[in-house]
């Protein structure tokens, strides 16, 4: 089964690498997973 992880972000660019690293480390089946990031009109 394919799993999608969706991250919504707004003016938190400095936190995104930390979030992505933690999420990537927690994913067991990386070949059946995807991470989708939505930028909600950030100004940073």
Give keywords.
44 residues, two-stranded parallel ribbon
Explain what the structure shows.
This protein has 1 helix and 2 strands, in the order E-H-E. With about 45 residues, it is α+β, with helices and mostly antiparallel strands. It has one domain. Strands 1-2 form a two-stranded parallel sheet. It is elongated, with a radius of gyration of 12 Å.
SSE layout and pairings?
Elements: E1 3-9, H1 16-26, E2 33-39
Parallel strand pairs: 1-2
| Residue share in helix | 25-40%
Proportion of beta-strand residues: 25-35%
Mean pLDDT: 95
Task: Enumerate the strands of the largest sheet in spatial order, edge to edge or round the barrel.
Answer: 1-2
How many structural domains does the protein architecture include? Answer: 1
Give the SSE string: EHE
Distance between the termini: 35 Å
Q: What ranges have pLDDT less than 50 throughout 5 or more consecutive residues?
A: none
The number of distinct helices, counting runs of at least 4 residues, comes to: 1
Q: Radius of gyration from the CA trace?
A: 12 Å
- Number of E-type strands: 2
Name the structural class: alpha+beta
Shape: elongated
Main sheet record? 2 strands, parallel
